[in-house]
Amino acid sequence: LRAPCLVPCRVFSPIVSPIARTVLPGGSVVVNSCSSAAEQLCNFVCDCSDCSDENQCGYLRGSAVLGTPFTCDFEDSDCGWQDVGTSTYGWVRSRASLAMWGTGPHSDHTVGTDLGWFLVTTSPPAKTAATAWLRSPEMREAAATCEIRAWYHLSGSWLNQTERPVLHLAVAHRDDVVGLWQSPERSSEGWHQLVAYPGRITEQFQLIFSLTQPPSCGAEVGLDDIMFRNCGLPGEQQACGAQESRCHRGSCVAQHRFCDGTDDCGDSSDEDVAQCKNFIRCSFDHNLCGWEVVAGPPVWGRNTSLNLGTSYSVPTRDHSNNSRAGFFLHVDGGPAAQAAGTAQLVSPTFQASDSCSLVLYCHLHGSATSNLSISYVTSSTQQLMRERTGDLGSCWVRERVDFSVTVPFKVLIEGVAGSGGTVAIDDLILSQGCLKEQGELVGSVPHPAPPVVTLPSQAGASPCAADEVACDSGDCIAAELACDFADTCADGSDEKHCGTTTFESGAGGWHDVSVGQLRWGLQKVTEPHSFLTVFLCPGTSLALQTGEGQMVGPAKARSPLLGPSGPACTMEMSYHIHSDPQGFLAVSVADHTTGSTQLAWQTQGRGSPAGGHVRVPLGQRSRPFQVELLALVDLQGAATVSVDNVTSEQCYLDVVSPTAAELSCNFERDMCGWYQDLSSDFKWVRSTGQGQGSDHTTGSGHFLSVDPSVPWSHGQRAQLLTPLQEPAAAPRCLSFWYRLAGPQIGTLNFKLRPEGGEEVVLWTRRGTQGSIWHQAWATLPATGQQRYQVAFEVLHDGFLGDVGLDDLTQTAGPCGAELSCSFEAEGCGLAASGKGTWQRQSNGTGTTAGPAADHTTGTAAGHYMVVNTGRVSLPVGHTAALTSQPYQPSVPAQCLAFWYQLSPGTPGSLRVFVEQSRVRTKVLSVSTMEGSSWHRSHVTVQPDGDWQVVFEAVGAGGDHGYIALDDLHVSDGACPEPASCDFEQDTCGWSSPSDPRLHSLAWGWKSGVTLTKYPSPEQDHTLGTRNGHYVHFDTSVLGARGTSALLESPPLPAATDSCLRFWYHMDIPEHLSRGELRVTLHGALGQRTVWSVPGHRSRGWQRAVVPVQSPGEFQVRGATLGCRVTAGTYQPPRPHLPLQISFEITTRRWPMEGTVALDDIVYSAGVGCHSSPKSPVEEKSSGSFVAEVVLSLLLALVIVALVAAGGWYWLKPRGLASRTPAESNSPQGFDNITFRD
Prior knowledge:
The protein is mainly β. It is built from 3 helices and 70 strands. The strands form 14 sheets. Strands 1, 2, 4, 5, 8, 11 and 13 form a 7-stranded antiparallel beta sheet that branches. This is AEGP protein.
């Protein structure tokens, strides 16, 4: 078949019947188990008892995840969809990539994580335009009610460009390819829903997705969750209802749907020619059938889709034949046409009648302001009977109007196409009660006598231009000033019909855009005893009613175009719903700037009357947007839905909330003026934890949280904003408590947004910081004369984790020295001095030679501080200093830790001083470094008062060189020995690798307080209480694709006889014990496993002792549950890498439920395992722990004494009491320890 140029032309192969088969390769999906005939396959009707005749049809019989029939979610297969392109640019089934944001979908739509599957375009050519083609299997017999829904994802730099790729959906039927849908002109990144209506299709057809992108576009498009709703022909029924008639095939159809131009029966028996002979149908295929086009402009034009091109708004086929060659009438929108008035089509004059009805099919698409109205006109009046406004989508919508007029009349059809839109009509069908004057039928030759009814003149209909609207006073204002929540007209009439209404004087601007058998309409409640008045005041409300459309789906009403709105904007309304649980009422917001629609609120039926008053936050939005009311219930019973008393509160853009200037908040009562950026992909939620832990304020109160794993949280970003703040003349300090937990949580940013300027990141943290509250500070700079906003932003790396925020406090003056600094946001107040210049940079943007990646993120985009130590920049003996702000100690000892890197060759030396009262004490000096990785150093500081740290680089005369610093951290308490840690204060340099290419999941750090979301031991080992801390990992989050969870020590010096001691806790069910925890040495000479233990359920904490010997510098690396399927796992090059040690759990079974925890790691350098270890900390703060040890020792001594006495008493007569056992070379004091080379 030759594809017409609705989409770029190419040649398709003929439609081929599906190959009969019983089982798919691999045996996963059964096809046609009952051997149905070919004509019964893929017809949206289950003929086999297991519905296997509806598998691999472009859909499966159902989605187990979504619970919807005739759906392809791509989780198990491609459902028969095939890439039919002829180039490398095509479609593949794939999963998301979390390694590089901005290069495609980062989750599927079905499950909302990186583990879900979808189709995505791949390998676009760089310099030429190309088209990716995707074709479904053959399908059969789509009903007139058929609705296709799918979700598509757009990504790429092209989103804001004028030359953009367009995604098309078309149907190939017989010898034609007809477009059903194309992506809108404005789009934003993320998952969007498409809805297409193929209409009644007989026999065989296939669906075709195509994406054509311009050269160098670089677009990626994903497809997921393709659903087919109400596509099967109606089944045979035993009995028909009172208002129904039986079709020849046994199904039942409402009587008023007979002879309406649509094959509702599925065998066309409801459109039988003999039965419908007295109905007059005008398809416009040959002429206007006696209807008259009133002179314009604009005018109704008779045309076909073949002649109208591929514009977004024009019909792609007619209704009569579902063909591009069929005729219809249309009027196109544009500034000139809109300014000229309204296109009018008028019927002949009809006799007075109470049985005349008109069925027509209308098409309104491309503009929210298009309008179609149907009226009757007599010699004295004009009465509006039906009106459709807005964008109904790319489909033909059935409308029916009944006329009961006591005098002769004409039918007047008026069309106004909004800018960029099209209004079209087809298949005007008049019932047999519509008789022309003089007794002639409408289809006869027009009578030569002048009409008895004349149309009213359009002169002076509007004094305003096309881009203006009229006030009631007659003045004209710009159209964008109407419904902007502020009075522009002197009489306020520009805000009169903008959605705020009691419905007593009309719809208040709300208009029905339903296309199915339900619609919204005004309804009067007069009975005071009616149960509706329990929730709604007596009077008129907007209610769900029976509609005239042919589709089966929710009713939808829209407000006028609104905006812009302010951050506090809220819509309030009263509502009533009486429905079973399948019914619902919802509010959504259609944002025409981004082309997206977001659900704002919803409620479901409960089986009994329910309702109330609800506040729906709309938030800050650009113009234009529209609010939508959606409802779905079964009106055949007692079900009802009504809405009343709609108001908009604080929606004007410049409205200032009473708490807008207050940044401080503990979130116990409300949000304190902070609000959710509704354009974000997922949300901040005020809650009390729900398994994530308690708040910081009281331990049982409220805080804000973000959880990207909740259903339908797609995308990367969640933002929390303040309203615009007044200019700040002086800097201030914002203190806050945060929590970053989970193995994939990503980044928390605090940003400043000057009005009209570029936003600035003031503070940032990346990666898990444990399920523990941390305090942070950020200085808000003076902003001069600029107003500003501040924002907390979450950027997640995956879907495993959560973020908490609590106890925000703003104080005057700048903050003090930062206790933790990654240099990702700024230089943290460190001041540079001396000959050379320290500068903050990343490898991707820096001008000075430096490390290829920072330590914090492990990427070229990460930032660090670096100084050029080459002889030109820093001559021999010259210094470059970097000095911190003063630290104010609260305990006798503090631990200063940082990461550093020296270039190969002659980098000079790094000297570190602690300065108190202008007296410097050198604590570190290093001039060479083994390997090219980051090294960690720490020093215990015991200050008498405020102190500062000074990093000093000294030039050595090399040609080139650098010294770099990253991740500066000051914590309370003395520093432990290198690689030793009890995890009470922090993780002591132990960390999960940040290199995104490793696809590694991070270990968590928490106390024993039970969290539903993060199962782990209830007590630590150090203190033996719920308040003690340890590191842990939940093995159930690991996938089957070679993911792992690594825990690395800082680099350690060479050791010939060292010892690693630690305590571990495992909770892995015995039937899933095909995994192991192991310790592995990694170094320049390779890797070696030195200890392992099978997965099991341990009875409490278990002790392990591992000898460590290495001729070179090394690291301890720990990994949890790296699946043994490692063929695709990335192993980064490690030139000159020091030796490392890993904690690692491997498994040959997935999923593997369980947890692993580590505590009290003690590394003894240069001391073998036969010696007593040093404690990882100087003191234990828990008296209960000491008491427990003492009691345990006393009990052990008593038991030993009793056993010895009894043994001596028993052995003495036998002469065996003096026997001395031989010494054992095996480890003492613990079991299940395995050493491995």
